[in-house]
Amino acid sequence: MYTLYNYFRSSTSYRVRIALNYKNIPYRQKGVNLVKGEQWSPEYTGLNPQGAVPVLIDENGYALTQSLAILDYLEETHPAPSFYPEDVKERAFVRQIALIVSCDIHPVNNLRVLKYLTENLGISEEQKLDWYQKWIYDNMSSIEIMLNKSPHHNKGEYCCGSAPTIADFCLIPQVYNARRYNCDMTRFPLIEAVEQKCLAYPAFIKADPHTQPDTPEELRRTG
Ligand SMILES: N[C@@H](CCC(=O)N[C@@H](CS)C(=O)NCC(=O)O)C(=O)O
Hints:
By secondary structure, the chain is an alpha+beta fold. It has two domains: about 1-80 and about 210-220, 3-Layer(aba) Sandwich (Glutaredoxin); about 90-205, Glutathione S-transferase Yfyf (Class Pi), Chain A, domain 2. The chain is built from nine helices and four strands; from the N terminus they run βαβαββααααααα. A four-stranded mixed β-sheet has the order 2-1-3-4, covered by helices on one side. β1 (about 1-5), α1 and β2 (about 25-30) form a beta-alpha-beta unit. α4 (about 90-110) packs antiparallel against α6, α4 packs parallel to α7 and α7 (about 165-180) packs across α8. The longest helix has 25 residues, at about 125-150. It is globular, with a radius of gyration of 17 Å. About 35% of the residues are buried. Bound molecules: glutathione. Glutathione binds near residues 52, 102 and 111.
């Protein structure tokens, strides 16, 4: 059985939960409370020297870090159902969206970066919010344009074609995170339509940050 070290509302953890659910791979979860700093405990940095979630331990005890590397490991060890399209151009398209989220949004808006801005550089909470929202708005605008122009996207469907892909696995957790930081997602109707489609899909429903074992009682979704 796989073990996923994760945090209920970490977007990189959410990506991996969706992928595991999508491939019907059974896993148990261990919560790492990022707000309490549990990612910096010696036991945890022994698993991931970067002090970040997620970490996936496979059935033989092999520890993997970096959500995109974990996703590709799952794809290669459990090829069906695949979360990549068959067509090579479509595969490139879903990677483009996954990489905008993973390389251009997430790293600059990560908890440790936001903390450094406020605690070390003296940025106010208001300026921090401005920083967060800038990278969301710039990059979500690009994704919205790409969806609009792409021959691979149909309005009201997933990012690419008629099945979820790695693009959706990365995008939906980032949209969730953006809403937490009061970003106005109505600016991006195509992205919102993708979100609606994904949130009705069982793998996404099961990965909902509000229903995980480490979700605090006050944030737990009931029904
Ligand atoms: N590129 C890494 C990023 C991992 C990462 O930074 N995860 C965040 C949560 S979404 C984290 O653990 N942050 C803890 C911190 O910033 O202290 C991945 O995709 O796995």
